[in-house]
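ok posting inputs for the NDP job
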Amino acid sequence: MAQNIKDKVVVIAGASSGLGAETARQLVKEGARVVLGARRIDRLKELAAELSLSDEAVFQVDVTDRNQVKAFVNHAVAVRGRIDVLLNNAGLMPHSPLERLKIDDWERMIDVNLKGVLFGIAAALPHMQNQKSGHIINTSSVAGHQVRPGGVVYSATKHAVRVISEGLRQEVKPYNIRSTIISPGAVKTELADHISEPDIAKGIKDFYENYAVPADSFARCVMFAISQPEDVDINEILFRPTAQQL
Ligand code: NDP
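and the output
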């Protein structure tokens, strides 16, 4: 059994599918007390039923709305008494070349991937400062380390997530708060289902079909970071499927 996970209150934004949902499954197995947020409340309720969690373990939240994110985190603290870990994991990846001017997609990525992470930090930080402990884990990407044609805005948001996480890490030393960036390569989830350009969607889906690994790969990284003793702060994890070149 992993150390230091049992009874921790772990709040996951973006828990209704993919990486967040699988991380919730693995954490519950290890005895964590999770609170799960996303827009699709029906999916969250299904997951709660699968994991035998009570209704208070799920919360409908759109991370683009700062008040909703605050209400989500406050709900978690109200029902669980504290917040040990916030996993800022909500995100979307509607890739397309800049010249196609999919400006609505650009805005959605900035709102969810970037501002959503900031709103999560804003909601959790006051509680963690009061507690003099806490751990904020932000999901970046291999795209947070490099840029490729077609993924420019996504990559920009994921670079920003890394910058914010590292800046946060440096600023919260007085409060005993930890900050971890996790940057996955291709993992099988619903991420590629929301690409609006059919040719781009096909290319990405083919790539994922050939290379992506299961979501427990990500969950293990989260567990590794959380399971460290309180004086060890895992700042950054970058992983890819073994077969993924770039
Ligand atoms: P999924 O599409 O399966 O999951 C995305 C999650 O984000 C869902 O729970 C979704 O919930 C939530 N979400 C999206 N928009 C919002 C919103 N406005 N408010 C609240 N929640 C929202 O994909 P993944 O599991 O792959 O994605 C999780 C994270 O991992 C993302 O940040 C993604 O960028 C990152 N990532 C994924 C990789 C991969 O290969 N899968 C690789 C690198 C990074 P709902 O729709 O119910 O609101």
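notes: The pocket of NDP is lined by residues 14-20, 38-40, 43, 61-64, 89-93, 112, 139, 141, 184, 186-187, 189-191 (CB under 6 Å). The chain is about 45% helix and 15% strand.
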